[in-house]
Amino acid sequence: MTDQITTPILIVGGGPVGLSLALDLGWRGIKHTLIERDSGTAVVMLAKANGLDERTMEMYRRWGVSDRLKEVGFPADHPGDTVYATSLNGYYIGRSILASMNESKTPAFTPQKAQRAPQYELDPVLANAVKTRGLTDILYGTEFDRFEQDEDGVTVKVIDVKTQRSFTIRCKYLVACDGAGSKARQLLGISFEGKQLDFSLSAMIRIPNLKMTPANMGGERYLLINESSVWCVFTSVDGREIWRITVHGSQDRLDVDRYDITADIKRAIGSDDVPFEILRLIPWRRSQCSAAKYEAGRVVLAGDSAHTMSPTGGHGLNTGVGDVSDLSWMLQASLDGWGGKNLLKAYEQERRPVGIRNAASCTRNYAAWVQDGKYTDVFDPGPKGDACRKKVGDHFVNALKDEWYSVGIALGYRYENSPVIVPDGSPPTPDSPIEYIPTARPGHRAPHAWLSDGRSTIDLFGHGFVLLRFAHDLDVSTLENAARSLGVPLMTYDVEDPKIASLYERKLVLVRPDGFVAWRADKLPADNLELLNTVRGAKI
To answer: pTM for the full model?
Structure first.
């Protein structure tokens, strides 16, 4: 290996966000390098995310991996219910019903429904797709050490974990996807603002023949409740025999070197006679934090290095993929020369509020878990206990709707006040966690609709800007010529369907490469260069 490698973009971190960025850059034809400290992908079984929301699946559709994820994910016939109980073999308290993948229907406003896929199966699918694309140099066993940046790029020192030999990588841009403890963020001196919510300990366990009371069967996850709150979460990881148990408390009490979680597992199962195997213990902090800045010169943060959130909602990974969707086209524009000098500053202004929004939603969900409910009769075997359990079950079913039904979080975020979005004065749609209202208002995701050739409108977007024209008599050649003069990729697409025209509300709609509406109107502006300079970040 040479003492210095040169690459346009260096990605630090080979988790799902780093791999997703590599996928999108490869899809755009951009060569780049990814470094990962571990010796490979998914070398350990991670007790992490397994819910891929509708927007994430739209991106995986773009990159050609959505069908593969259906094959390796959670069993398609397994219900997604959340069951509230005192233990798996204890009292039934209530149930939030979520259909199996086979039974769930794709919503009318997206071409992709949400998917369940445990991270230890997701990551290899992404890594294999990255390797197949052939534009990513993946350096496993390579640790990020430090960097220096100048006007023209970033010089990064890295270390071969096995030999401890150091070498440098020279890149135009460095993207840090290196997790909540991001060394890149720390070296930049960027504060990580927010709060710690608790300390948790998770165990991955194998239970080959788990039996439970009939009333409690069919759950994907179990929120186990004592006299005051949820004390434990018991989640099916693979829909078969791998489970995850999570308990929360103080770091001292849950010290992984001293704490015996065996008693908690038996308590959660509600039986001492069920054999199980503990595969791995993982201590972790539940937090709600956001980097004060997402961008510093040529170094950019994405995923957990930019934001952390409680897993109560499953929005952490999905928010990271949203970062990738927004960031990747800006990197391409900057490399290709048609992006404005300060385009990447818009990334922070767009994505940071979304990260804060999503994290706040997760924290509200978590607060509903751990509030002191004083469920003093929940273990009573008689009518008093029945009444208590009914009341507690109804409470959790209602209180956690935002957690289990969150399509508004997935698709309803918007880039208000972005310097590369041209507002049209229309009012925003409600920002609800559980409801999504399609709109082509600038700053929102361009709505999905099925085209006459069988494609989704979503499938039109990605490579450059797309001008949707709903009135064929409008001459848009001046905008096309202006884009050509600036080197901005622009394609005009005529839509004849009046229903889609009604959905988009204007005769002309300019959609960015990430599928978000940049501008719309019924006629071209007086100054086409002014419009293009705004949306490409040349006016910031």
So the answer is: 0.96
